[in-house]
Specification:
This protein has 259 residues and is α/β, with parallel strands linked by helices. The chain has helices at 14-22, 67-78, 104-114, 131-151, 213-218, 234-240; strands at residues 2-6, 28-34, 53-57, 60-63, 85-92, 119-124, 157-163, 171-173, 179-180, 185-189, 195-199, 205-206, 222-228.
Amino acid sequence: MLILISNDDGIQSPGLQVLAEQVADLGRVVVVAPDRERSAVGHALTLHAPLRAQKIREDWWAIDGTPTDCVSLGIHGLLKESPDLVISGINRGANMGDDLTYSGTVAAAMEATLMGVPAFAISLDSHEFNREAFVWAGQVAAVIARTVQEQGLPADTFLNVNVPAGRPSGMQLARQGKRVYEGAVIRKSDPRGNDYYWIGAGELGFQDLDGTDFNVVQSGQVAVTPLHLDLTNYAALERLRQWQLDLDLDPGEDTSRNE
Ligand code: MN
């Protein structure tokens, strides 16, 4: 099994190192990760600058790009054959509910899915580095990797895995939850007396909804959420058919005389 690993916390992240150790028994592990922290860059792709790949050691590459760049470059540039699996993580901090659209960790798994490679993202619900907790999350990653290898994934589907901070008591399928983003912007004054703003610094809440990633992780279990990239709201599509959208534009200026 050829496993490509990436993340958004950067190549120096302990979560990445623990992940590589814990899945090493499953086959050859190649790491292609950003050369610095790139959390919350979402699915950004570098289109207007060159990318440099620095070989840190055998099968370890640091890229001056985004997580999405890393997966794309790994699959199409650095690996001679397509990987059997892409794993992104282990992220420092959970990636649940509405936060997914910001997540570089999740985006790396998305990119693999777009390339037709089975993938999952894995995040630990803690911002501290507690080696024991990361090792448990790494063991979870190995279990999921084996299961994906044996069972395969449905078409256009990848997994978003979130691990509680302590020893997980179990593992459950979950749906994506809902964040509560109140008071997310903090205004302060800089040493020159000018205002500055800091977003995403507050403690965020979540809606208490059964079967969601938030609730499963809060119950001490690993949450496994299947995701796809089709953002169409199919229920809304049906409802909006009543709109009878027509496009009746003004004729506009006659430009034929300029010919
Ligand atoms: Mn991160």
